[in-house]
Design goal:
Nucleotidyltransferase, domain 5; 5-stranded mixed sheet; 194 residues; 20% strand; alpha/beta; 55% helix
C-alpha cells in the first residue's frame, strides 16, 4: 500500500499521521506526537533570545537550531522506518507555508516575526530532514488543508471533513484537528503522486 506522512508542526513538537487509502476510505496506520526540540532547550528560542545581549542571543539560537536539526533528523528517520515496515512511503506533507528564515535582528525587532521564525524553524527542519532522506515533501496550506486536499482527492471538503471526523470512532482518542489536518495532507500527497 502506498503511504504518506502528514505532519503538523508546533513549537518544539509535531503531530505526525501515517495514512494510506483514499478520501472515501482513508486508512490511518500510525499517529504520534513527535518531539523536535530537546527538553533542556527553549522551544520558543526567539522569545528566549529576545532579552539577551546580541552575542548571547546569536549563540542560543544557533545552539537550538543545531539541536532541532539533529532531533528532527532522528524523528524523520524513525518515521521513514515505520512507514517502510507497513508499505511504500511516497512522500510527506508538512503543514505550513515555506518562508525565508528572517535574520536574527529582524526576528527580534517584531513580535510577529518571532512567531514566524519559530514556526519556520520547525517546519523547515521537517522539510530538510525528509529531503536528506530522499523523501519528497509537499507543503500543505495550514488554513486550507482540508479544502486543498479535497481538490486533490476529487471530493468535496464537506465529504472529506465528515470522513475524517468519523475516523475518531474507529481510532479513538487522541483525534483532534491536528490529526485530521495531518491525515488530509497525507491523503493529498497520495492523490498528487497517484
Amino acid at each position: 500500500m502506498q503511504l504518506a506522512w502528514g505532519c503538523k508542526p508546533h513549537s518544539g513538537w509535531a503531530v505526525a499521521v501515517l495514512a494510506g487509502g483514499t478520501a472515501s476510505a482513508p486508512v490511518v496506520l500510525d499517529r504520534r506526537r513527535v518531539q523536535l526540540c530537546p527538553d533542556d532547550l527553549p522551544r520558543q528560542v526567539y522569545h528566549a533570545a529576545e532579552g539577551l545581549p546580541r552575542p548571547g542571543a546569536t549563540a542560543l539560537v544557533a545552539k537550538v537550531d543545531a539541536a532541532v536539526t539533529r532531533m528532527t533528523s532522528d524523528v524523520v528517520e524513525e518515521l521513514a522506518t515505520v512507514a517502510a515496515e507497513l508499505g511504500d512511503l511516497v512522500g510527506m506533507a508538512v503543514l505550513g507555508n515555506p518562508r525565508d528564515m528572517p535574520s536574527l535582528d529582524r526576528a527580534l525587532a517584531n513580535h510577529s516575526m518571532l512567531h514566524a521564525a519559530e514556526g519556520e524553524l520547525y517546519r523547515g527542519a521537517l522539510d530538510d530532514a525528509a529531503a536528506a532522506l530522499g523523501i519528497a515533501v509537499t507543503p500543505a496550506p495550514p488554513k486550507r488543508t482540508i479544502e486543498e486536499a479535497a481538490i486533490a482527492l476529487e471530493t468535496t471538503s464537506e465529504r472529506l471533513t465528515a470522513r475524517l471526523g468519523a475516523l475518531r470512532a474507529e481510532l479513538g482518542a487522541p483525534w483532534q484537528a491536528d490529526h485530521k489536518h495531518a491525515t488530509a495532507a497525507a491523503l493529498m500527497v497520495l492523490a498528487l503522486n497517484a
